[in-house]
C-alpha cells in the first residue's frame, strides 16, 4: 500500500480527495467506477499548492451547488397556510435540507483546512496574497514595472493613435447627429 500524506494536525477529519485502492483488489486491478486511480507514490509526498487550490476550487463549486439545491428545496416548499400537505412530504424535504446543511458545514471545514495548508506551504513566498490582490478600500501598492521592448512600445503608441483617431471620428459623427436632431425638432415645432 502506498504511503499516505503527512497530515497537519486537525486534517485527519478532512475527507480525502484521493481514494486508496481497497485491500481486496489485486495490485493490477482497476478500481471501481466511484474511485480514482492511485497516483504514483512519489506524487503523494509532493502535493503542490496549485493542486490544493484546484481541490479548493472544486470544493467551492460543491458549496455553490449545495447552496443552490437548498434554495430550490426552500422555493418548492409551500408555507403551511391552511393547506394540508402530507407530513411525509415535509419530513422528506426537511431531511434533505438538513443533509445539505450538514454537507455544507463539512465542505466549509474542508475549504478552511485547504486554505490553511496552502498558506502554510506558501509562507516562504516573497509576496503575500494581500499584495497580489488588493482589498477594496485599501491603498494600491505601487507595482514595479519592467521596461518593455521597443517593438511593444511602438505597437502601443500605434494603437493609442488609432484610438485617438476613432474617438475624433465618433465625436464628429455625434456632433452631426446632434445637429440633425436639432434641425428635425425645430422643423417639427414649426409645423405645429
Automatic annotation (TrEMBL):
Recorded GO MF terms: transcription coregulator activity
Coiled-coil boundaries: 153-183
Pfam families: Med30
Biased composition (Low complexity): 9-22
Subcellular location(s) per record: Nucleus
Keyword Nucleus among UniProt keywords: yes
Region of interest (Disordered), residue spans: 1-41
Keywords: Activator, Coiled coil, Nucleus, Transcription, Transcription regulation
Any GO BP annotation: positive regulation of DNA-templated transcription
Main location: nucleus
Cellular component GO terms, alphabetical: mediator complex
Residue stretches spanning the membrane: none
Similarity comment: family membership: Belongs to the Mediator complex subunit 30 family.
Matches recorded under PANTHER family: MEDIATOR OF RNA POLYMERASE II TRANSCRIPTION SUBUNIT 30
Function, as annotated: Component of the Mediator complex, a coactivator involved in the regulated transcription of nearly all RNA polymerase II-dependent genes. Mediator functions as a bridge to convey information from gene-specific regulatory proteins to the basal RNA polymerase II transcription machinery. Mediator is recruited to promoters by direct interactions with regulatory proteins and serves as a scaffold for the assembly of a functional preinitiation complex with RNA polymerase II and the general transcription factors.
UniProt protein name: Mediator of RNA polymerase II transcription subunit 30
Species lineage: Eukaryota, Metazoa, Chordata, Craniata, Vertebrata
Amino acid at each position: 500500500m502506498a504511503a499516505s500524506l503527512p497530515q497537519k494536525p486537525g486534517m485527519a477529519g478532512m475527507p480525502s480527495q484521493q481514494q486508496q485502492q481497497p485491500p481486496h483488489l489485486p495490485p493490477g486491478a482497476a478500481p471501481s467506477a466511484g474511485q480514482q486511480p492511485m497516483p504514483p507514490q512519489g506524487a503523494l509526498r509532493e502535493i503542490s499548492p496549485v493542486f490544493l487550490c484546484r481541490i479548493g476550487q472544486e470544493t467551492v463549486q460543491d458549496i455553490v451547488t449545495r447552496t443552490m439545491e437548498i434554495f430550490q428545496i426552500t422555493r418548492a416548499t409551500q408555507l403551511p397556510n391552511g393547506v394540508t400537505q402530507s407530513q411525509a412530504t415535509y419530513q422528506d424535504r426537511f431531511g434533505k435540507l438538513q443533509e445539505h446543511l450538514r454537507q455544507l458545514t463539512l465542505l466549509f471545514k474542508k475549504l478552511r483546512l485547504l486554505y490553511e495548508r496552502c498558506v502554510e506551504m506558501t509562507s516562504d513566498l516573497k509576496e503575500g496574497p494581500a499584495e497580489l490582490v488588493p482589498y477594496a478600500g485599501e491603498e494600491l501598492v505601487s507595482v514595479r514595472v519592467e521596461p518593455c521592448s521597443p517593438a511593444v512600445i511602438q505597437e502601443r503608441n500605434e494603437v493609442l493613435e488609432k484610438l485617438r483617431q476613432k474617438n475624433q471620428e465618433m465625436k464628429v459623427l455625434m456632433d452631426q447627429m446632434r445637429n440633425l436632431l436639432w434641425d428635425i425638432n425645430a422643423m417639427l415645432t414649426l409645423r405645429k
